[in-house]
Amino acid sequence: MQKLNTITLSILLSCSAPVFAQAQQAADNDKKASQVITENENGLEVISVTATKRKTKLMETPVAISALSDSQLKQNGVNNVRDIANLVPGLDISTATDQAAPVISMRGVRSTNITELGDPAVGVHLDGIYSPRMQGALALMYDVERVEALRGPQGTLFGRNSTVGSINVISAKPDFGGAFGRVSGEVGKYNARVLDGFINIPVNDEFAVRVAAKGLKRDSFLEGYWDPNQYDSRRLNGDVLNAPVISEDSYQGNGSTITQRENWWIDDAGTDPLAQRVRALTRADDDDFYNNANEYSFRISSLWEPLGGNFSNHTVFQHYANDSGNNIDLVNCEKLSGRPAEYGGDCSTFLPSDNTYQAVVNVPGKLNLDITYLRNTLNYTLDNDMSVVWLLGYENMDRSSAQDSEIGLDPWDGATYFLDGTGAKSYSSEIQLQSDNHGDLIWIAGLNYFHEKTTTLGYYDNPMDDKAFWDQPDRSTDAYALFGQATYNITKDLHLTLGYRFSDETKEDQGGRTYRCSNAGGCAPGWFNRTVLNKLPIDYFEDPASYESYFENDNKGSWTHHDFRVGIDYDINADTMIYSYLASGFKAGGIGDVYEVVNDRTGETTRFETQFDPEEVLTWEVGVKSSLLNNSLNLQVVFFYTDYTDMQYASVGSIGNIERLSPVKDDDGAPLLDDNGEPVLDFQNQPIIAYYTQNVPGSTIKGIELEFDWKPYPDGRVTGYVTWTDAKITEDWISKWDYDPEYLFDISYEESKDPTNTLLTTNLKGNNLAMTPELTANLSYTHTFNLGEYGYVHSLMNVSWKDKSYSTIWNVDKHLDDMEFAVSDDATRYMDDTRDAFAVFDASLKYEPQNKKWFAEIFVNNATDEIVQYWNNTGKGFSKGSFGMPRYYGLRAGINF
Predict the structure, then answer these.
(1) Helix H or strand E segment including 672
(2) What's the rounded mean pLDDT across residues 148-160?
(3) Mind listing the pLDDT tens digit for each residue in 476-520?
(4) How far apart are CA 71 and CA 145, in angstroms?
(5) Most CB within 10 Å of its CB: which of 268, 309, 595, 726?
(6) Secondary structure letter of residue 2 according to DSSP
(7) Is residue 266 part of a domain?
(8) Which segments constitute the TonB-dependent receptor-like beta-barrel domain (predicted)?
(9) 411: region left, alpha or beta (phi > 0 left; psi from -120 to 50 alpha)
């Protein structure tokens, strides 16, 4: 581990010194302070968490953890895990639109492989049970007791894929206290409608049931257009296909998109002259276009606690369904604003308007996501000193989707489809043996087993060229673990914690096949046969039997690992503790995809495997937790230092080259035609493009997190955090430059994907890790106006600020001098991977009568209409990716009964 530098230690000590000073001043008055706390109306409520797999007080738990209550989540308009990103220090959550899944980054660590081959770096748990597929994190969040966000390696207790942290969503349990419930609704901008509620029913003194549900519908917030000028028009209706003609030929300067004004194939790509003319775009309906919402979920939970028994059993059945128009990448028009025409112009050059929130497509978006959960927690007390806890989880996810890939920015049309039958089933079981919370030794030991089987059925369709169909019926993971953790009271105030976990994980692909359909092989209609293509049924390429060949993907990999935790904490007094630990985290390697590619000229087959190694972290953390000012201020200060080895980085790139029979192109990328108007074909060295994972040799991450919760007076509360993070690649990483090389180097597609092209060789040592701002801050202020007999008015103001950062690991502006970019330094700023600093402001005002039987609330989220990019997928000079929602406002109301 590298040594901490002097500046880092100075910052840590300067943040911690006031805490120690105030804590020591109060040390002689512990007893008196405790008495004051019980009588202090400004005192904060005591929050219990389950970070150590047993209930402990938040301010007495020696880990960095944020706990968000149900009321906090509602006040901030949280609908799913993605929406908590601004409320937790060091957390950033984006969305990879092609997989309809969130990418969670914490303290600079994230996983970009969200396919069935990848695992997250931040584990998501529901009621303490691991949820393996990140799509599940998008499930609606409602009737929640709290959300716990643990930062730092959680490998000892939480195991696999908690490399840098864990998020645990804890649902509200049934209550024996009586029958009660709540129903609330929301209406807002973009025709948004939300309805949620719950009812609690105690059947008797031993058994209770709670039923909760939520539904969300919202129109798209995009300016959407259908484009009949793209190559594949099979999915467009007659009104779109017969839109007004604006030009008889391409390259006439008419229209607003590339496919209207300068499409090199539109004049020669078919035999139907009417279909080849340039037509106007058609505005899409907002209700079913990309980025709309149509979701619902319900949960039935039961709690059984026999009065004369020594056990309790909590069972949860939950279902979530999403039937929406999917999400799509957008162009960052704000970043491109003002770019000169010689470098590609701004959005008004190639889109209908200069608006980030717009999309031009020829493939209607579709997302069908259906997830069923079953969770059970059994607590059985063996005697006064020991208990058994059994956690059982089952999750079944089915999904299908359709997504336009090039969004009208490239004449080479493309779309990605996942078909019915795609999904994942998982089963997990964990049995724990726990001591009681008394005595000098408190311990937990357990066994864990996890099994997942994923099925993928889908294809990428390049209408003018080759297609790949994925049939992966059985990709499985089996993981076993043995773990234990114990805390020993060396003295009354000094505590030592030791933890260990052994993990054994196997991943296997059985019976997987990748089918190939090429123009050269006669499966696809061929180049410039647009008329033939558009007479085919829309599901024509969904049948693998129509493909000309396939190769097998059978593959297997196994990994074992030993994780540990050594921690010590000291109670300075009744209100202040200091702790430190050294802990490791581990994420297993992967089998990757297998590619067998046929040389069109020789007929020889070459096999490529894309396995990748495990990643590991080693973190040292020191922190202080203190309840100050008569328990009206909770303060947490944390410093951490992480060595990050073999980070798994997934991206689309070239893994080799092969000879293919393909069209010969001119300098503009357009195919050359012979005297008969057919493309000239020749055997050419073409790249083999794959989505694969690399290992980044070594990175170092260090930071400080200051989190506070202050109740300065009975009706007011101030909460928030400030963080500083430094996350960099610290070892040589010699790689091929893959950030928009066509545009930056002004080279052909084939040259940009050639892994042997020395022009693209670079060393990324010194680059910042993605989505990790150096500074972030959050400040939330709530105040209640007591109107006496007229009730209460509750106000909320929340502002979240994040410093500038990079959206990818490429850090383009750091390589202006060592790379031979053909684009000027000034021009690169319009499309590089920098993300400007931004602030998001939310506010609400809620009224409640004295009896609190009902409420009405007005709110606004992202009041300043900030455009925030969360994912970057730049290509050919277009900065694009996923974006946060623009300004949203509305009204909420509800009744309690």
Answers:
(1) none
(2) 83
(3) 999 999 999 999 999 999 999 999 999 999 999 999 898 988 887
(4) 9
(5) 595
(6) P
(7) no
(8) 353-862
(9) alpha
Residue 340's CB is within 10 A of a number of other CB atoms, namely 12
- Within 10 A of 238 (CB to CB), how many other CB atoms are there? 7
Q: What is the pLDDT of residue 214?
A: 94
Q: What is the mean pLDDT of residues 2-15?
A: 38
Q: What is the DSSP letter of 6?
A: H
Chain centroid, CA 112 distance in Å = 9
Average pLDDT over residues 303-324: 94
Give residue 676's pLDDT: 74
User: pLDDT of 530-542, one tens digit each?
Assistant: 888 999 999 999 9
- What three-state secondary structure class fits 794? strand
Amino acid at 437: N
Q: Is residue 614 part of a domain?
A: yes
Which pLDDT belongs to residue 138? 67
117 contacts: CB under 8 Å, gap ≥ 6: 475, 590, 591, 592, 593, 693
Q: Which residues contact 288 (CB under 8 A, 6 or more apart)?
A: 220, 325, 364
Which sign, positive or negative, has the C-alpha torsion 751, 755, 761, 764?
A: positive
Q: 71-80, 154-163, 798-807, 866-875 — which one is most confidently predicted on average?
A: 798-807
Look at residues 490, 392, 383 and name the one whose alpha carbon lies nearest to residue 434. 383
Summarize pLDDT for 50-62 with one digit per residue, the tens.
877 778 888 888 8
Q: pTM of whole model > 0.85?
A: yes
- Cα–chain center distance at 621: 25
Provide the pLDDT confidence category of residue 691 given band limits of 50, 70 and 90. confident
* Residue whose tokens read 């609704």: 185
Residue 73 has pLDDT above 50, yes or no: yes
Tokens representing 350 are 């190639």
* Residue 271 included in any domain: no
Question: Based on the number of CB atoms within 10 Å of its own CB, is 179 exposed (0-12), middle (13-18) or buried (19 or more)?
Answer: exposed
State the DSSP H helix or E strand holding residue 22, giving kind and residue range, or none if neither: helix 6-26
CA separation for the pair 411, 230 (Å, rounded) = 7
742, 651, 136, 775: CA torsion to nearest 10: -80
Work out the number of other CB atoms within 10 angstroms of the CB of residue 585: 29
- Between strands 494-509 and 555-571, the pairing is antiparallel
Burial grade of 228 (CB within 10 A; 0-12, 13-18, 19 or more):
buried
* Residue carrying the six token digits 């114990």: 486
CA distance 861 to 88: 17
CA distances 237 to 243, 457, 533, Å, are: 10, 26, 16
Q: Quick one: which of 98, 105, 76, 66 has its CA closest to 870?
A: 105
Of the candidates 867, 847, 843, which has an alpha carbon nearest to the alpha carbon of residue 855? 847
Buried b (16+ CB within 10 A) or exposed e, 522-556: ebbbbbbbbeebbeeeeeebbebeebeebbebebe
Question: Which phi-psi region, left, alpha or beta, contains residue 98 (left: φ > 0; alpha: ψ -120 to 50)?
Answer: alpha
- Indicate whether 617 belongs to any domain: yes
For 5, the 3-state DSSP assignment is coil
- For residue 365, give its domain range: 42-227+281-512+553-896
- What is the total count of domains within the chain? 1
For the beta carbon of residue 708, count every other beta carbon within 10 angstroms: 16
Cα 384 to Cα 466: distance, rounded to the nearest angstrom: 68
Q: What is the largest CA-CA distance in the chain?
A: 98
The percentage of the chain sitting over the pLDDT mark of 70, rounded to a whole number, equals 93
Say how many CA atoms lie within 13 Å of 313 toward its Cβ: 8
Q: What CATH code is carried by the domain that includes residue 84?
A: 2.40.170.20
